[in-house]
Amino acid sequence: MERLHKFLSRMGVSSRRQAEQWILAGRVSVNGQVVTEMGVKVDPERSVVKVDGRRVQAAPLITVMLHKPYGYVSTTKDPQERRVVTELVGEKYGRLYPVGRLDYDATGLLLLTNDGELAQRLTHPRYQTPRTYRVTVAGEVARETLNRLAAGVELEGRKVAAEVFLRKKEPDKSVLELTVWEGRYHLVKRLMEQVGHPVLKLKRIAFGPLRLGRLPRGSHRVLTGQELRDLKEAVGLK
Ligand code: URA
What class does CATH assign to 2-55? Predict the structure, then answer.
């Protein structure tokens, strides 16, 4: 038996939080009965679960890695009608959702999946999934600044530590490789702003155990079995 909101998220129809809202709103039925309380359990094999009258059935789980280009929003729909990352993957895998976000003007590794539970864990702060960026910043970054970032910089009253390597230094800009363990909004841009080096370019080159490698910009590929196993293991899933 499995809790209803967890089942819905695992089936890839929604996040757990959204499933809870649907349940509260009376949009979900189990074996013909509308369920509005939390904590109801279903038999994933046998229960007939419907959302808005439509049966929820297991879609094959799929996770792809996309090399996000500039000028795309990391959502499935944009109210401002800008281009969205799901356009780059198309319809062939059914509906996929981005795992976390990369800014409109950021590039690099972005996962898309219909595996709600995996997505939830990868983005949950508890699992501290590392994200590594190649970051071009304004100005010449001093060694003390790297130490300051490593020791942790305060953002909204909470310290955020980053592991940083200086890859290139020029008088007017520096290239860093920077790892953080959470995915807060504009995190890298705000961190670098705080230490006086605004971000000029941001590319994510690794997420958890995965590396972007040579995947061309705008292209995507399905994760290999090994990559998927590594990813799941990193967040305590079998
Ligand atoms: N940090 C940012 O500032 N932007 C991103 O897209 C990712 C991390």
Answer: alpha beta
Question: How many A from CA of 204 to the centre of ligand 1?
Answer: 8
Catalytic residues: 103
Ligand 1: does its nearest atom lie under 6 Å from the Cβ of 189?
yes
Has this prediction a pTM greater than 0.85?
A: no
Residue 183 CA: nearest ligand 1 atom is 8
Q: Is the pLDDT of residue 59 over 90?
A: no
Q: Which atom of ligand 1 is nearest to the CA of 186?
A: 3
Nearest CA to ligand 1 atom 7: 102
Instruction: Tell me the pLDDT tens digit for each residue of 74-88.
Output: 999 999 999 999 999
- In the CATH hierarchy, which fold is given to the domain comprising 63-125+215-234? Alpha-Beta Plaits (3.30.70)
**Based on the number of CB atoms within 10 Å of its own CB, is 133 exposed (0-12), middle (13-18) or buried (19 or more)?**
buried
* Residue pLDDT, tens place only, 206-231: 999 999 999 999 999 999 999 999 99
Contacts of 182 (CB under 8 A, 6+ apart): 125, 128, 160
Find, among 6, 132, 15, 11, the residue nearest to 75 by Cα.
15
